[in-house]
Amino acid sequence: MLFDTLDGAIADIDSLQDYNLDHLIKHYGISFQYSSNLPNRVYGFSLPYTNTMFINANTEYPERIKAHELIHCLVDDSAEPLIESSFSSNAKIESRADRGGLYLMIHEWLAFTGIESQDFNIETFCVQNHIPRKYVFMAAGVAEQALDVKIPKLKLYY
């Protein structure tokens, strides 16, 4: 654990003004590797105590998992893999990692596309970043706070 809270981690990342996940992993000294030895249903896991994270090499969209696991390494204090809690979608620790990961992805996507905050479109972001439907409303809430914008009522066409 490098930060006591998600807000503390986000504030530090914001001060860097670099949301590239690979740059952040290197900046915070996190050991990262892809592994083809993980079970299919385990997309990634982290060992925050040792600042280590693993992403399943067979996962279809690793960037979303990478952002999620990075947050675990920054704010969790568990010395055990968080595999069990990842299967309980309402676990507080997982929700925090999801919100933090979405925050990073939103900012990285804006930097990559050159889109201004006021032109942010949640549905386009979610489609282009392969965000599962069950996370769209969470992503909209994170975007509203992160970008200080109002997201129009979602119609969820995709």
What's the structural blueprint in terms of helices and strands?
Layout: H1 6-16, H2 21-27, E1 31-35, E2 44-47, E3 52-56, H3 62-75, H4 83-86, H5 92-113, H6 122-128, H7 136-147
Parallel strand pairs: 1-3
Antiparallel strand pairs: 2-3
Account of the 3D structure:
- This protein has 158 residues and is mainly alpha-helical.
- It has seven helices and three strands; from the N terminus they run ααβββααααα.
- The protein has a three-stranded mixed β-sheet, with helices on one face.
- Strand 2 (44-47) and strand 3 (52-56) form a beta hairpin.
- Helix 3 packs across helix 5 (92-113).
- The protein is globular, with a radius of gyration of 15 Å.
- Mean pLDDT is 90; it is low at 84-90.
